Amino acid sequence: MRLTFNRTASTLLLNSSCGNVGENLVLLFFVLGCILTIIGTLLNLCSCLLFYRAKSLDKTPYGIFIIALSIADIVKLIAEYVVHILYFYIDHRYLVCSITWFLTLSSENLSYLFLCALGIERNLKVWITDRRCLITRRRACTITMFLIIFVVIYDHPFLFLPYDVSYCFVKLFNSQILFSCDNAHYKSYGYSYSLTDLIFIESIGLNNFILPILIISTNIVLILGLRRRAYQRRIRLGTRKHKDWREQSVILYVFLSSITFVFLTTPTGVLNALSAVHNQKMATNNIALVLELMEILHHCSHFPILLMTSSVIRSKTFQILFHPRQTQRSSVSSRFSGQPRILSASLSQ
After folding, report:
1. Strand (E) positions, the chain?
2. If you average pLDDT over residues 110-126, what whole number do you get?
3. The domain 3-323: what is its CATH number?
4. How much is the pTM?
């Protein structure tokens, strides 16, 4: 490993050449990562457009969580790939070691928290009969804002200016390019800590331990609730043919999203935690690049899973993409058709 030291005022820059990263794999990361980032951004934008135009957020408050989830995925894709392109032009330590990791982990935590909120909202509809306890549109917006503030406070230690950083350079087209931050040291509130310390806490805490347990447990409880409600309806109606397809599509969406989360994202957190403990630096090797591409793929998968699990979502998406005028007419007609009902209800009172 070739090391060069550059000393500036109160800052130590340690530039290390990560020789265990293949040049072909680096090229694959930038090419395939670019394709996945473009596709994932378009898919998440389609998800936002779908639930904003085709779904009534008053009737489906979980749509707010899906919109927030899609926006968090877009920020995650930007932090995982676009920021690496910015390193070609901006190599400041605050961008490389602070802003990048803050955007990466905060967007990832928000993505998983919105998945948990989606599962909890579905559980409340299944288990609770009192409609006053359900999550409404206003409550969903409040929960979304609370989760954003909570994650910003939780991950804000990344935002302090590092005074001691080490970079990892990889070889591409016979030249060394800045790829990532190996480690950095910070001082805040009278304490000093490193980037590896923060990543280790994230890996064994909210990011790879608490949130996966919450997602899996909400899915299990939701499955039990749907089975219980289906059993009660069969007894009440005396038939076996009744199935709540909307609830089943939602549970299938959450379940598949959780499976992709476990297989595509957890390995990256485990690798970073092990590297932070044993090597005192971030993992930058061939395996790390492959796992990072898998993580980018995960944040492209939520909307395709939604299309696979719901025929209603597929038909609404088709209408918005290929028949936008028809969608606008139907939304306007539904608004006008709802006005006489409200007027008649008020007159009857």
Report:
1. 3-8, 11-17, 164-172, 175-188, 191-194
2. 87
3. 1.20.1070.10
4. 0.82
